[in-house]
Structures are given as C-alpha cells and as structure tokens.
Design a protein that fits this description.
Strands 1-2 form a two-stranded antiparallel sheet. It has a two-stranded antiparallel ribbon with strand order 3-4. It has six helices and four strands; from the N terminus they run αββααααββα. 48% of the residues lie in helices and 9% in strands.
Length: 155
C-alpha cells in the first residue's frame, strides 16, 4: 500500500507550503511541505521542487510503515499513519525517530496497540504526539485530532 493522493493532499494542508526556509516549532529549519534534510537559513525553492521533495520524503515514510506494520490497515489508516510519521520523523532526523521505534528499539505505544489489532486504542495514541521544542504545541493538538479522525474514517 502507498499513500493516496487524498493522503498527500491531507499532509499538504497540514504542513502548508513554505518556499523559503523557516524554523519549525522545534527550531528545525524546514522548507517546502515540511522537508528538513539539509535545509539551512536562507534556502528557497520552487513549488515544483517542494512537491518532489514531499513525494520523496513520503516514500521513506511508506517504507518505514511497511517494515513496522504487522496488521492490515485501510487506506485512510495508512494515510493518517504517513501523516503522523512524516510530522514526527522517520528516524533520519535525529530525535524525531520515536513513532516507529525509540532509541531502545521498542515501538511506540501507538504502534504497539496497532500491531496488536487494537485499532481504537491506537487511534487514541495520536493525541500523545503533541510535543515539540519545549512543550505542547497547540497546532499539533489540532493536527493529531485531524489525523485521528482520518484514521478512524470508514470511507
């Protein structure tokens, strides 16, 4: 399974397009639709390059999910998981590796519940991923609620 076009549009709406590098909530330089790798102050890009970087970054998310998932998921669930993993990070971005596996190698509670087939309990864990920098980020509260709703959506 791959992220759907609706899933990509969902992430674009969450991330918003930035053609010039900005620091995110955690002080990490970001550009395009949340791209962070190799981004520095003063960087800029075109909308076309932002789209290409997003799709490349999402390939990493898809690959990590394929490795981590032990249960079947719907397209909406996969899209929601791609969104939260993209936001938290795939492990290539330092401390942002927690959703799939913590430094100890243990899965997050969200992934643990999901792989046990406890989909509702996994959905409740989206709300745990609201911290960045030095505390709770209001925007992440709302994003996680939207991701949870997508995860639970039947169609």
């Amino acid at each position: 399974m791959n992220i759907s076009d609706k899933g990509i549009d969902f992430i674009k709406a969450q991330e918003k397009l930035r053609l010039n590098a900005e620091q995110n909530y955690a002080g990490i330089w970001t550009i395009g639709y949340g791209h962070t790798e190799g981004v520095h102050e003063g960087d800029s890009l075109t909308p076309e390059l932002a789209e290409a970087l997003l799709r490349s970054d999402l390939k990493q998310c898809e690959a990590r999910l394929h490795q981590a998932l032990a249960v079947p998921v719907t397209q909406n669930q996969f899209d929601a998981l791609c969104s939260i993993l993209f936001s938290v990070g795939t492990g290539q971005r330092g401390v942002k590796a927690g959703l799939i596996a913590l430094k100890s190698g243990q899965p997050s509670t969200l992934l643990m519940f999901l792989n046990q087939g406890c989909y509702a309990a996994a959905a409740e864990q989206f709300g745990s991923w609201i911290y960045a920098g030095n505390g709770v980020v209001k925007e992440l509260i709302y994003r996680r609620e939207r991701e949870k709703n997508l995860f639970l959506r039947k169609k």
